Amino acid sequence: IQLTQSPSSLSASVGDRVTITCRASQGINSYLAWYQQKPGKAPKLLISIASTLESGVPSRFSGSGSGTDFTLTISSLQPEDLATYYCQQLNSSPLTFGGGTKVEIK
Amino acid sequence: EVQLVESGGGLVQPGGSLRLSCAASGFTVSTSWMHWVRQAPGMGLVWVSRIKSDGISTTYADSVKGRFTISRDDAKNTVHLQMNSLRAEDTAVYYCTRDGSYSLDLWGQGTLVTVSS
């Protein structure tokens, strides 16, 4: 199953609403996770099963979608959100990741 | 503290072998599905392998099938990745991760493997 993320990069101002999309090549139910990877660090789980926020993750992050189309939204971009974001499908093996979206702060 | 710590990375020549280890603390690997994920320099994340909690069922990406072997040492609460016949394209940071039921909820810091002559 291929995952296509868009955009591949974006630049936004602090306080902006940011939306990242992830499209699967076939239906994956809601078995999609989102990860944040800051420069030089390991990825960190943000959201599982499309919309379940991981404990400790700020509420400005949210996820939605099912089937083939999914969205990660940052409601009010903060400086610490500088990172690359990846979606991942866990519906079937082999597990696959999207290509990533690099978020920069203007 | 719940954490994963990888070790065993380094520089190896093409065709060589390397064994990565992932030491878990704060939970028991024998009750979890565990995965390896890799990331080539400047590139995205790629899933490599998984071992289920039964310790027997394993799955591999096509790119490493027949060359890599995932295993577990329950006495040491450790997961291993034996990598043989290494190629330049295997150069990457290798992350050990825990399956948190439809997510990878815990990641190690990663260990760098460089395949070069």
Task: Provide tags for this entry.
heterodimer; A: mainly beta; B: 117 residues; mainly beta; 4-stranded antiparallel β-sheet; globular
Number of helices of chain B: 0
Q: What helical percentage do the residues of chain B reach?
A: under 10%
Evaluate the radius of gyration of chain B. 13 Å
Give the percentage of residues in beta strands of chain A. Answer: over 45%
Number of strands of chain A: 11
3D architecture notes:
The complex is a heterodimer of chains A (106) and B (117). Chain A has strands at residues 3-6, 9-12, 18-24, 32-37, 44-48, 52-53, 61-66, 69-74, 83-89, 96-97, 101-105. Chain A is mainly beta. In chain A, strands 2, 4, 5, 6, 9, 10 and 11 form a seven-stranded mixed beta sheet that branches. Chain A has a four-stranded antiparallel beta sheet with strand order 1-3-8-7, with no helix packed on it. In chain A, a hairpin with a 6-residue loop joins β4 and β5. Chain A is globular and about 35 Å long. By secondary structure, chain B is mainly β. Chain B is 0% helix and 52% strand. Chain B has no helices and eleven strands. Chain B has strands at residues 3-7, 10-12, 18-25, 34-39, 45-51, 58-60, 68-73, 78-83, 92-99, 104-107, 111-115. In chain B, the strands form two sheets. In chain B, strands 2, 4, 5, 6, 9, 10 and 11 form a seven-stranded mixed beta sheet that branches. Chain B has a four-stranded antiparallel beta sheet with strand order 1-3-8-7, with no helix packed on it. The model of chain B has no long low-confidence stretch (mean pLDDT 97). The chains are: A mainly beta (106), B mainly beta (117). The A-B interface holds A 31, 33, 35, 37, 42-45, 48-49, 54, 86, 88, 90, 93-100 and B 35, 37, 44-47, 50, 59, 61-62, 95, 100-110.
